């Protein structure tokens, strides 16, 4: 998972800052207090805030950064009769494991997560080349301790007492390769890794990135069931990149400020199963039929756009890492007690007749607290037809994953 051009500094349970390196002077400790609305007026999954108070004892957010932080919220200031105050003293307290940390997604994802003041330990696991990644990251002056684990013999240790597990392990797509082509390789990888999670940290949030997500999440669910530790509230398929792309493309198309744009994306995480609900875009804007078709197609095929542009040199690793890091940040905020965390994600769901479905959910300390059904109400005719059209393909992918897991006995 990859990084962005400007470093995204995650301020624990409230906000993500796009700050340049020059804006991050060294320091010791800081306290950030947020007064935020208890409403879903979010941008990119991050809450709108009415005020920010930064008290800094020269930490890695100094005076310049504090000014930038306050300024970033000035345009979002709104009056609200109901406000909740969430106090954050970034004493790192959560352990995050990245399984597949030496890969094209894993390395930039590890860098982004390393920047979170809520992470006390970052466990990096891969079958090879992870020691160098860990050594490199360990030089970054952020609170989390970086530990490396190599090979099957060290997998269990990488998962001990972990709060959040992120799984980007697997092979990437190459030109001409469909997500389905990845299935046999990545299915076995996910099965093995989730077995280890079940044995060593069954209460952790599990974030599945390995493609095809429409099948690997059901595989993970079946493995956890066979191990007797399945909690559907804590198993997430990471589809955040679809939302990130939708927000970006809509903002560009309509000349909007990106911070104002939020487009829910439902369904699955491949091709036509990706359904951006443009009629539900915030702020409310109108699209012509041509714009809807053009934007929907681009969002659905954005991964292929990157694969072809890289011409055999990789897939969408950087934007995927950014989207995954955002989802990890949201999970950490929820674990830290923030009661206003919403993200689109592929989870066990009763929103449709399908057993798994991507939609906006509210995330709390114990995982999924609520599935937001209102996003599927009042759809446009185009979206209604697209929703029905994606179901057979998504159903087949889910069933393929379940069948694979049921045929494979889990390791004792």
UniProtKB/TrEMBL annotation:
<dbReference type="InterPro" id="IPR022383">
    <property type="entry name" value="Lactate/malate_DH_C"/>
</dbReference>
<keyword id="KW-0816">Tricarboxylic acid cycle</keyword>
<dbReference type="InterPro" id="IPR036291">
    <property type="entry name" value="NAD(P)-bd_dom_sf"/>
</dbReference>
<comment type="similarity">
    <text>Belongs to the LDH/MDH superfamily. MDH type 1 family.</text>
</comment>
<dbReference type="InterPro" id="IPR001236">
    <property type="entry name" value="Lactate/malate_DH_N"/>
</dbReference>
<dbReference type="Pfam" id="PF00056">
    <property type="entry name" value="Ldh_1_N"/>
</dbReference>
<keyword id="KW-0520">NAD</keyword>
<dbReference type="InterPro" id="IPR001252">
    <property type="entry name" value="Malate_DH_AS"/>
</dbReference>
<feature type="domain" description="Lactate/malate dehydrogenase C-terminal">
    <location>
        <begin position="239"/>
        <end position="404"/>
    </location>
</feature>
<protein>
    <recommendedName>
        <fullName>malate dehydrogenase</fullName>
        <ecNumber>1.1.1.37</ecNumber>
    </recommendedName>
</protein>
<dbReference type="InterPro" id="IPR015955">
    <property type="entry name" value="Lactate_DH/Glyco_Ohase_4_C"/>
</dbReference>
<dbReference type="Pfam" id="PF02866">
    <property type="entry name" value="Ldh_1_C"/>
</dbReference>
<dbReference type="InterPro" id="IPR010097">
    <property type="entry name" value="Malate_DH_type1"/>
</dbReference>
<keyword id="KW-0560">Oxidoreductase</keyword>
<feature type="domain" description="Lactate/malate dehydrogenase N-terminal">
    <location>
        <begin position="95"/>
        <end position="237"/>
    </location>
</feature>
<comment type="subunit">
    <text>Homodimer.</text>
</comment>
């Amino acid at each position: 998972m990859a990084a962005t051009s400007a470093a995204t500094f995650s301020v624990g349970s409230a906000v993500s800052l796009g700050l340049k390196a020059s804006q991050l002077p060294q320091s010791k400790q800081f306290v950030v207090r947020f007064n935020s609305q208890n409403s879903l007026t979010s941008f990119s999954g991050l809450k709108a805030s009415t005020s920010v108070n930064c008290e800094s004892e020269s930490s890695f957010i100094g005076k310049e950064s504090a000014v930038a932080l306050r300024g970033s919220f000035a345009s979002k200031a709104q009056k609200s009769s109901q406000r909740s105050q969430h106090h954050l003293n970034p004493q790192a307290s959560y352990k995050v494991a990245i399984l597949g940390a030496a890969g094209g997604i894993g390395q930039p994802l590890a860098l982004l997560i390393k920047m979170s003041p809520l992470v006390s330990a970052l466990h990096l696991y891969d079958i090879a080349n992870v020691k160098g990644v860990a050594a490199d990251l360990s030089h970054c002056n952020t609170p989390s301790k970086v530990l490396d684990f190599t090979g099957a013999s060290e997998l269990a240790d990488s998962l001990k007492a972990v709060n959040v597990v992120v799984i980007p392990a697997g092979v990437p797509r190459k030109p001409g390769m469909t997500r389905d082509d990845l299935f046999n390789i990545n299915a076995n990888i996910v099965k093995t890794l989730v077995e280890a999670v079940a044995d060593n940290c069954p209460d952790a949030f599990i974030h599945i990135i390995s493609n095809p997500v429409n099948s690997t999440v059901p595989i993970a669910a079946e493995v956890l069931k066979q191990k007797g530790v399945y909690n559907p509230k804590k198993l997430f398929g990471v589809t955040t990149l679809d939302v990130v792309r939708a927000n970006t493309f809509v903002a560009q198309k309509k000349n909007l400020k990106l911070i104002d744009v939020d487009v829910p994306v439902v369904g699955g995480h491949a091709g036509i199963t990706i359904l951006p609900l443009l009629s539900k875009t915030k702020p409310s804007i109108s699209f012509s039929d041509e714009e809807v078709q053009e934007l929907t197609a681009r969002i659905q095929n954005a991964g292929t756009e990157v694969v072809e542009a890289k011409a055999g040199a990789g897939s969408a690793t950087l934007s995927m890492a950014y989207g995954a890091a955002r989802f990890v940040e949201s999970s950490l905020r929820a674990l830290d007690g923030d009661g206003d965390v919403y993200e689109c994600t592929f989870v066990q769901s009763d929103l449709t007749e399908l057993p798994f479905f991507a939609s906006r959910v509210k995330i709390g300390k114990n995982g999924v607290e609520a599935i937001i059904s209102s996003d599927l109400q009042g759809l446009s005719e185009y979206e209604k037809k697209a929703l029905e059209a994606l179901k057979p393909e998504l159903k087949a992918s889910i069933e393929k994953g379940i069948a694979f897991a049921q045929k494979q006995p889990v390791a004792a």
